[in-house]
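Students often ask why we bother encoding 3D structure as a string. The short answer is that it lets us treat folding as translation between two languages. Here is a chain of 341 residues written in the first language.
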Amino acid sequence: MKSLFALLLLLSLAPVSRAAVNPVEPPAELAFGIISTESATGLRLGFEPFLEKLSARLGIKVRGFYASDYAGVIEAMRFGKVHLAWMGNAAAIQAIDRAGAEVFAQSTGPDGSTGFNAVIIVPATSPFNDVDALVAAAPQLNFGNGDPLSTTGNLIPNYYLWAPRGLDPRRAFKRVRNANHEVNALAVAAGQIDFATNNTESLTRLRQRHPAAADKIRVIWTSPEIPRDPLVYRADLPRELKTRLQAAFLAFGRIGPEADADRRLLAAIADGWGPFLAADNRQLLTLRGFELERDAMILDAETRLDPAEKAKRVAAARERQRQLLDYEKLGLFWNGVKAPR
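And here it is in the second language, the structure alphabet:
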């Protein structure tokens, strides 16, 4: 079996991916996948004007693909129904590993910010002020969890909160429901659930669109900053088309007589975007490390496995972590070699 190190090395080398060896024919139309952070109606309001302008500048029709969950976008990309997409970091890892995607850009905020935070929210009148209090009352609480492939709705809370405590939310809390950030926030505001995962970007959007509901929510935990969402495209798209796509995204809101209007248009997308930054698969290395550490912590806390089997799985998880660390060290070394002296 190929090692994780070899896999990561291959995934990071976009110019020599299978796209360079066996490119597909240029599609007559491009499908842009959009993750379900809120209702499809709300997402369309922001994305459709952007996609219309993008189509005109590329000379290729770009239509939106709105799935009901994150996995829907990944599977559509896997089967060639989606050519490029906006995804969270955790979903992008799955798209790379399962659907032959690669990162080509990173979103920013209207203020140029490149990071955001996961949060835990409760009703403003809730008696709970920290996560330890939630855990102590877990059997009585209803939890609004995020999409299973959401970075801030699932991966980050698992990494920082649940796995270190040896806690499986599905077993620990009275009831766990999975929903997008908007639905979870509105449910917390209405007192339908006791707490939920969310993020600072989505709460900004909530204050703009549902200010009364936002006033009924309180944040009791905030994660360290994580990178803003990447944009990915299929690795097997023709190289010339990938170059045009990346150039069009990087120029949007930066270059040309419509740059100011473009920035206003970007600011209306989702929680508010700014001009894009160039990126590649290396953006996801930190989140890959989080996934591996989370998995190792969950295994460490597992009590139902045979001890020998548990030890075997823990050792394998730690070995994958070591390989990722070796890969990161190699990248730092290589950057040092290339740096001007």
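Translate back mentally: Confidence is low (pLDDT under 50) at residues 1-21, 332-341. Keep this in mind for the problem set.
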